[in-house]
TrEMBL record:
Keywords: Membrane, Transmembrane, Transmembrane helix
Membrane found in the keyword field: yes
Source organism, top-level taxon: Eukaryota
Organism phylogeny: Eukaryota, Metazoa, Spiralia, Gnathifera, Rotifera
TM helices/strands, residue ranges: 162-185, 197-221, 281-299
Keyword Transmembrane helix: yes
Protein's organism: Adineta steineri
Domain EGF-like, residue spans: 117-128
Gene3D superfamilies noted in UniProt: Rhodopsin 7-helix transmembrane proteins (1.20.1070.10)
Protein name (database record): EGF-like domain-containing protein
Length: 332
């Protein structure tokens, strides 16, 4: 049997709301795994007589399947088997609900009661309406399904723990590097030309980047671990932290670009390079650059908002933008 089956939940009483999780321990093993080869090779009718053995031998076994039946292990460790149609399909006949190529599934062919979407890579949301990589990866995208809600940091996955370690190391290295760079370019002799002014401001920005990075990282971790946190706090993190981090990153990149441009001009002009004019231009650029970048990022404040994922019971910070905005950000 190539298809894998998982036991999601057993209802002893009818409930309108059910919370469960799927993990490897809930997989229904194949009959080949729970019976020896001698019993498996028997004709189907004779083999069924031995289906009580797996439940009595392994008290942790919840279910197993063969090519015709699915069997559930009861609390008394007996097998309760019923016919299972392996060829049945839950795919919607007409996929008008799911977006961006998501696979639509429904609980019954006609008059379905529930419907859900299986999203392809990079898409998420109850209808696969959100694209995680549309305008660059964020910490929210990287950690979205790695952080376990309602769990402490010690109970988180290895990926989260390693990420926390790397972020702390990056913060310490970045802080030391930025501070030493600032001390170097604090000297007036290092700011005789415009590139010194750019690099001094860049050292300050680099400290702000690593500071905002660690604030953003722990904010994401904390809010994902505590789904019931106040919505206003989530909105502040969504509308302030991520845009600020992008502002600092973009400013640092443009300052480094300005350094490269000025050095190229100084090489071309040689002894005719005007240091005084270079410093004047650098001061104007340093004053205007943050406002220019903020203007180019204005779409973030307009299209960024919170999204309630009822399937995952979480709140995501997402960007809902049109294709024209995507093209604009690609050009910028």
């Amino acid at each position: 049997i190539d298809t894998r089956y998982y036991l999601a939940v057993l209802q002893k009483f009818l409930q309108s709301n059910i919370t469960t999780s799927i993990n490897p321990t809930r997989r229904c093993a194949s009959v080949d795994e729970v019976l020896n080869t001698t019993l498996v090779s028997l004709p189907r009718i004779q083999r069924l007589k031995s289906y009580h053995i797996p439940c009595q031998r392994d008290f942790n076994l919840q279910c197993f399947v063969d090519e015709f039946y699915m069997c559930l292990c009861t609390e008394e460790h007996h097998s309760n088997c019923f016919l299972l149609d392996h060829q049945s399909s839950f795919v919607c006949g007409d996929n008008v609900y799911c977006e961006n190529g998501g696979t639509c599934l429904q609980d019954r062919p006609m008059c379905f009661y529930s419907i859900l979407c299986l999203c392809s890579d990079c898409f998420f949301g109850d209808r696969c309406q959100f694209y995680a990589k549309g305008i660059g990866l964020t910490l929210d995208d990287l950690l979205r399904y790695e952080v376990r809600p309602n769990s402490t940091l010690n109970d988180q996955s290895l990926v989260v723990k390693l990420s926390a370690t790397f972020v702390m190391i990056i913060f310490l290295i970045g802080l030391i590097n930025g501070f030493l760079s600032y001390l170097v370019f604090r000297n007036r002799d290092s700011r005789k030309v415009g590139s010194g002014i750019y690099l001094r401001l860049s050292s300050i920005i680099s400290i702000l980047i690593v500071t905002m990075l660690i604030i953003k990282f722990w904010f994401v971790i904390y809010t994902y671990m505590n789904p019931l946190i106040n919505r206003n706090i989530l909105r502040v993190g969504c509308l302030v932290f991520e845009p600020l981090l992008r502002l600092f990153l973009n400013t640092s990149n443009w300052l480094n670009t300005c350094v490269a441009i000025e050095r190229a001009i100084s090489v071309l002009q040689g002894i005719n390079f005007n240091k005084k004019r270079s410093k004047c231009i650098a001061r104007w650029v340093c004053c205007l650059l943050p406002f220019i970048i903020l203007g180019s990022m204005s779409y973030e404040l307009i299209y960024r908002d919170l999204f309630d994922d009822h399937e995952e019971r979480r709140v995501w910070c997402v960007l809902q933008y049109s294709q024209s905005i995507e093209k604009y950000t690609t050009i910028i």
